Amino acid sequence: MFEFTIIVPVYNEEDNLDRVEKELSNYIKIASKKTKILFVNDGSKDNSQQIIERICANNTDFTFISFKENRGLSAAITAGFQSADTELVGYIDSDLQTDPKDFNLLLEHIPTFDLVTGVRANRKDSFVKNMSSTIANGIRRAFTHDGMDDTGCPLKVIKTDFAKKIPMFKGLHRFLPAMVLLQNGKITQIPVKHFPRIAGEAKYGLWNRLIGPLIDCFAYLWMKKKYIDFDIEKKG
To answer: Which of 19, 34, 96, 115 is deepest in the core (most CB within 10 A)?
Structure first.
């Protein structure tokens, strides 16, 4: 019985996917929870889908869903959440700038918390990317008061019941801790390793890292005001 689903959003990552297969296969062998992998192909235009299908055919612990067209990272993550049938769900980017083995560090804390996110220590990105992310995180904290230093870190573990109740909107991946807080959940952050991108190209520019998140903050405030939360006590 699987306990943990790792979502891997994919958009034009054909040069990285063989390494993703290797690294995640190695992680499954040492995972502290019985783990399976769910690729979400976000309308890739390269050979990513063919590679994903080959990987899944050769590995029973790997599955996939594929979008008809590109819908963005937030949509891919949400689709993964809604497809998950395990108690826990997490995600990692297909560029593997974070280490799958660090999932075990996050899983140590999940009995106490409802979301555990990584914080990228000694980030190996460009100065512009690091600075824009720092500014964007500061703006987001001012709006959400979630206390998180690096919500863009692509290494998270969430209890699936919480993940499935997060409404989809563009940019939501930056607000996952805040959305768990809206459900009266508990969150924490744990330092994880970070590496330079080895293959492929980053899909997001300055707009996505700085201006876009500022606009998304206003969307979050609206969402917070309108958010409906409930707990079912009994079923008949």
So the answer is: 115
